[in-house]
């Protein structure tokens, strides 16, 4: 009954919230902007996470962050006070690796990204390499013509890449001119606001946009909002979307992901998207966009802990 | 009567071609892919250019290339055998500079681009600066937070930039968070194919796509297909669109530009777009796209000289 209503949980009675929470078996938490803000924990979320777990919910962290592996995400989560374990961390890097392993991919990956992806690929015995930092030490024409391509490359995988530059763009595009080479992206996340005046740490989205523009090829995005992210726990019977709540801070990834997987959704105002963004969608009059209106909204997760304690 | 018909000029009688050419007073030539292919002249086009000039047409070179200034383009044109002069070179760099001068822009430009743009800006007394090559010598978070912005910057201008990288992306986005700062692009050109297997020298398009994605702002593109490019010669009475033919190799820029300015258009098959691309547009069933079907087509410009000699 709350579907795409953006109901403020604080406007419901405690009894009504508890009744609803009683129907939820699993809670999926996005990480950046929900559980932590760069290196700082978001206190209300850490409390809510641990309180929900103590109340018997199965909590997962589901993140498009590709800078560190699932092990790295676990380490950070524990250091910030979250009670969880490796089996409950799902990342876009893992999703990409799982996709290639599922295809029995035997070739090499040219990775435009960080160690978060290369480690997950290696964990599933998939060979990847990066070429960075790669200088443009000759004319662009000579660089492009003289570029040696590895004939064993079968896929380009793109995530956040701090070393991305024009030589990498040319290299990726040169591979992608061969239509048999896969073009995979971890997530279209534009980045994450930090500090004052909305400065941004940039994500994989802008890099994918650049490669897409020059190559005229569409990437397959395997992080949120692709429901592929939940393939393994759903097929193992660990997650039932009908009784699962996704808590996220970004409409285009988290709330769309909840819609694509059939989970319920809660937008929290501690990260990228705001109620203004929800209003924009509602005012757009675009039916296709309306699925990105969340079921619930909270400015922060404090009320969850309060209601359960 | 030939509007958006993609008529192959070779299928018309010599008399019919001469009759039509008799109605043309001005011919606009794109440069890369039409007059030259990197450093090599396209012989049929050089002949056609000079023959048309000898036949009394006013020829202009109208290019989105921003790596060199109009002076540089003139120098190259003359060295490749084209008979022209400075007054008949129109570039996207000049168009950007003209736009800012027309607005009586008094602030500084942060330029994501090459000297072609900075020289044209300087010619119109507009101050610009680049920061390159800029290394990412700390964490992306620290780089972003510690970045010093120049309060005098009033516009970001983007063209092809061989030094483009993540630090530049973050710098551009940090400026663009201030909505009063203009976001101008020279052209959305994805690049230019060279050598075998469609390797590409990349243009400003992919860079603009990356900045657009992270900033969520739309750039004003002042190169082709923006009719602003012809503002000065049209207002000076030097060009009458009705009696002007645009010859180009790229549908999205050149042919669209002809449509936007009300000129006639001829697609030549020596560069980026092919008849396959025209067929794709025709088959798309999208009425908005149909305006990008050229009036005429030639695989190369040889027949123009043959008919006039």
Automatic annotation (TrEMBL), chains A, B:
<dbReference type="InterPro" id="IPR006349">
    <property type="entry name" value="PGP_euk"/>
</dbReference>
<dbReference type="InterPro" id="IPR006357">
    <property type="entry name" value="HAD-SF_hydro_IIA"/>
</dbReference>
<feature type="binding site">
    <location>
        <position position="249"/>
    </location>
    <ligand>
        <name>Mg(2+)</name>
    </ligand>
</feature>
<dbReference type="GO" id="GO:0016791">
    <property type="term" value="F:phosphatase activity"/>
</dbReference>
<keyword id="KW-0479">Metal-binding</keyword>
<dbReference type="Pfam" id="PF13344">
    <property type="entry name" value="Hydrolase_6"/>
</dbReference>
<feature type="binding site">
    <location>
        <position position="32"/>
    </location>
    <ligand>
        <name>Mg(2+)</name>
    </ligand>
</feature>
<dbReference type="GO" id="GO:0005737">
    <property type="term" value="C:cytoplasm"/>
</dbReference>
<comment type="similarity">
    <text>Belongs to the HAD-like hydrolase superfamily.</text>
</comment>
<dbReference type="GO" id="GO:0046872">
    <property type="term" value="F:metal ion binding"/>
</dbReference>
<feature type="binding site">
    <location>
        <position position="30"/>
    </location>
    <ligand>
        <name>Mg(2+)</name>
    </ligand>
</feature>
<feature type="binding site">
    <location>
        <position position="224"/>
    </location>
    <ligand>
        <name>substrate</name>
    </ligand>
</feature>
<feature type="active site" description="Nucleophile">
    <location>
        <position position="30"/>
    </location>
</feature>
<dbReference type="InterPro" id="IPR023214">
    <property type="entry name" value="HAD_sf"/>
</dbReference>
<feature type="active site" description="Proton donor">
    <location>
        <position position="32"/>
    </location>
</feature>
<keyword id="KW-0460">Magnesium</keyword>
<keyword id="KW-0378">Hydrolase</keyword>
<dbReference type="InterPro" id="IPR036412">
    <property type="entry name" value="HAD-like_sf"/>
</dbReference>
<protein>
    <submittedName>
        <fullName>GH14576</fullName>
    </submittedName>
</protein>
<dbReference type="Pfam" id="PF13242">
    <property type="entry name" value="Hydrolase_like"/>
</dbReference>
